[in-house]
């Protein structure tokens, strides 16, 4: 029996690690039958393990509902430290040697379509040559949810305009970008240098991954007592160049997202009439993966691919 030093309240005992593995599976599936299948256990064995955990924590942990089970507040409270602890233990027990040519590891990466459009193709090309059996899963990211997804072991990496907001998160800058003001080539504002007054009075398109109709431009304008009209919001970077090329909207947009767009030749790019910071695109991961050989290999590969963008 392997014991782990997570002590339930009011109980000075150590909990069998296998019980926590069962708890993690039930939390992930919210269904005892599916958790049993995932663990290659019988349903009665999973139920017996849960009963032991209930006694240890003096809490029901799960309540039966028609679709399966619902976690109690106590179960939700302990899940993140339990999942993090299990991930750390799995890392210690994994083989140190990693062979990309034969590995069939699956990596989940949270990123937006702007980032994916820049490096997905060269990354897949490298993988096809060096690690043909590696699987990648790209999921959408708003940057706001990325730290929580990493904390909960839902993803392996997040890539975007990120900063480490939690103590166990690591970051590495992959490349930088900057904002420009994009508009169609025949736009009335494309004939001369764009002024702040013209910029504010124009109709704007805003790329917002969260759906909120405000961005860094609006924060800067508010500080100067100014406000712009946001006529349209979209949640994908790839849509912006196409819309700008066939409308009178303008947008503060990442230069690289226009540069690599098929509509690039139809757009006029003006200097943004606002002082703003550069965009630092970073890769973020949890430090439980810091010494993971497979994870380190992937980080190095992504870093190399992005160095040629």
Helices and strands in order:
Blueprint: E1 3-4, E2 15-16, H1 17-29, H2 32-39, H3 43-57, E3 62-65, E4 68-71, H4 73-93, E5 106-111, H5 113-130, E6 135-140, H6 146-151, E7 157-160, E8 169-177, E9 179-184, H7 196-201, E10 203-207, H8 216-223, E11 229-234, H9 239-245, E12 251-254, H10 255-259, E13 267-270, E14 279-286, H11 293-306
Parallel strand pairs: 5-6, 5-7, 10-11
Antiparallel strand pairs: 1-2, 3-4, 7-14, 8-14, 9-12, 9-13
Report mean pLDDT, rounded to a whole number.
89
Main beta sheet, described? 5 strands, mixed
Radius of gyration (CA) equals: 24 Å
Quaternary class: single chain
**Spans where pLDDT lies below 50 across 5 or more residues:** 1-13
In short:
The protein is an alpha/beta fold and 309 residues long. The chain contains eleven helices and 14 strands. The protein has a five-stranded mixed beta sheet.
Fold and architecture overview:
The protein has 309 residues and is an alpha/beta fold. Helices cover 39% and strands 23% of the residues. The chain has helices at residues 17-29, 32-39, 43-57, 73-93, 113-130, 146-151, 196-201, 216-223, 239-245, 255-259, 293-306; strands at residues 3-4, 15-16, 62-65, 68-71, 106-111, 135-140, 157-160, 169-177, 179-184, 203-207, 229-234, 251-254, 267-270, 279-286. A hairpin with a 2-residue loop joins strand 3 (62-65) and strand 4 (68-71).
């Amino acid at each position: 029996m392997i014991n782990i030093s997570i002590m339930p309240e009011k109980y000075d005992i150590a909990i069998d690690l296998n019980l926590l593995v069962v708890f993690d599976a039930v939390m992930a599936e919210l269904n005892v039958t599916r958790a049993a299948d995932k663990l290659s256990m019988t349903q009665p064995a999973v139920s017996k393990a849960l009963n032991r955990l209930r006694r240890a924590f003096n809490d029901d942990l799960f309540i039966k509902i028609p679709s399966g089970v619902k976690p109690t507040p106590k179960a939700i409270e302990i899940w993140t430290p339990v999942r993090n602890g299990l991930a750390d233990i799995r890392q210690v027990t994994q083989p140190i040697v990693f062979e990309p040519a034969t590995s069939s590891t699956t990596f989940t990466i949270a990123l937006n379509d702007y980032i994916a459009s820049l490096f997905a193709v060269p990354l897949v090309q490298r993988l096809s040559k060096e690690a043909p059996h590696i699987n990648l899963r790209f999921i959408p990211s708003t940057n706001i949810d990325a730290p929580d997804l990493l904390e909960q072991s839902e993803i392996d990496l997040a890539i975007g305009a990120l900063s480490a907001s939690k103590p166990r998160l690591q970051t590495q800058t992959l490349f930088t970008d900057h904002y420009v003001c994009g508009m169609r080539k025949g736009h009335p504002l494309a004939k001369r240098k764009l002024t702040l007054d013209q910029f504010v009075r124009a109709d704007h398109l805003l790329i917002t991954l969260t759906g909120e109709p405000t961005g860094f431009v609006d924060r800067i304008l508010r500080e100067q007592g100014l406000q712009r009209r946001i006529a349209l919001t979209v949640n994908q970077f790839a849509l912006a160049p196409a819309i700008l090329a066939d409308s009178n909207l303008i947008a503060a947009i990442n230069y690289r997202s226009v540069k690599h767009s098929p509509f690039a030749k139809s757009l006029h790019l003006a200097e943004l009439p606002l002082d703003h910071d550069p965009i630092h695109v970073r890769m973020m991961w949890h430090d439980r993966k810091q010494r993971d050989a497979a994870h380190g290999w992937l980080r190095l590969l992504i870093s190399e691919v992005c160095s040629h963008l």
